[in-house]
């Protein structure tokens, strides 16, 4: 867990330095909580996913932003799978990922938006690997900066694809 916090702190620090000039030109920060339901092969092993993320949005055209985000997601192992792992001497409640993504976000009328991001998801597990991650989604930004979004987050590695349906509740400032 200390490694995860260190990596998130480092990413946030690097992001602040990289976007310091941009934020004075109208960029927006966005912090949020994520909850997901694993689908496909992920659903066979994991019951839910919970996490948090920070995102920076830099305007490039009217209502269009380039985004960069980093976060942490914890996938919780299903009870029967956890029991089977314990039977072979593995005591584990879940696995962690650090997704780092870049993308585009476009606002339509009123606060509705569509967004697409892609990047890498780094495993926090010993011996874990990195996978390609992509996340198309839609959402709404309410007056006052609160935001709700739905997305599909897909993971691809060595020809294998899996994913989750996710809800993100955030605050844009």
UniProtKB/TrEMBL annotation:
The Outer membrane protein beta-barrel domain, residue ranges: 7-173
Record keywords: Signal
Top-rank taxon, per record: Bacteria
Secretion signal span: 1-20
Name used for this protein in its record: Outer membrane protein beta-barrel domain-containing protein
Lineage of source species: Bacteria, Pseudomonadati, Bacteroidota, Sphingobacteriia, Sphingobacteriales
């Amino acid at each position: 867990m200390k490694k995860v916090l260190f990596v998130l702190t480092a990413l946030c620090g690097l992001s602040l330095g990289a976007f310091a000039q941009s934020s004075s030109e109208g960029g927006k920060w966005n912090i949020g909580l994520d909850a997901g339901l694993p689908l496909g092969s992920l659903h066979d092993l994991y019951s839910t996913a919970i996490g948090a993320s920070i995102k920076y949005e830099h305007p490039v055209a009217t209502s269009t932003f380039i985004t960069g985000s980093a976060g942490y997601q914890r996938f919780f192992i299903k009870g029967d799978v956890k029991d089977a792992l314990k039977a072979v001497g593995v005591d584990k409640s879940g696995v962690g990922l650090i997704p780092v993504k870049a993308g585009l976000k476009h606002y339509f009328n009123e606060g509705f938006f569509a967004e697409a991001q892609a990047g890498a998801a780094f495993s926090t597990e010993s011996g874990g690997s990195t996978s390609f991650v992509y996340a198309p989604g839609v959402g709404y930004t309410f007056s006052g900066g609160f935001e709700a979004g739905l997305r599909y987050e897909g993971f691809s590695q060595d020809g294998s694809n899996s994913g989750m349906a996710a809800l993100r509740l955030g605050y844009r400032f």
